[in-house]
Write a structure and sequence with these properties.
2 copies of one chain form a homodimer. By secondary structure, chain A is mainly beta. Helices cover about 0% and strands about 70% of the residues of chain A. Chain A has strands at about 5-10, 15-25, 30-35, 40-45, 45-50, 55-60. The termini of chain A are far apart. The interface of A and B includes residues 27, 48 and 50 of A.
Chain lengths: ~60, ~60
């Protein structure tokens, strides 16, 4: 499966915020994450990196 | 496999810019795409959406 885990940067820490993410939409200073379970989270953040090899999405908060 | 195709929005058109993308890094108004073939492209753009279901990365140019 191709789903990824999403993490939010907090200083040098990475806080896990969603598992099994399969959709990411970035607009107007927010990132919307959706999981295969139908879960949805909207964060005031932007994409920092996404690795399909390690299945990790890293988001950076927008101050 | 989890790789995705990357498209750049040109008006209402989507121009395919890279196949088999496995890494995306967004910083300072650029998006860097890397493929499983070691290809790398840096674009003046930002992420619009990413679907792991349809394996499509949509980028929006920054004017």
């Amino acid at each position: 499966m191709c789903e990824a885990k999403a993490y939010l940067l907090k200083g040098s820490e990475e806080e896990e915020i969603m598992e099994e993410v399969n959709e990411i939409v970035e607009e107007n200073g927010t990132v919307t994450l959706r999981s295969i379970f139908g879960e949805e989270k909207v964060l005031k953040a932007k994409l920092k990196s996404f690795s399909l090899v390690s299945h990790r999405v890293i988001l950076e908060p927008i101050p």
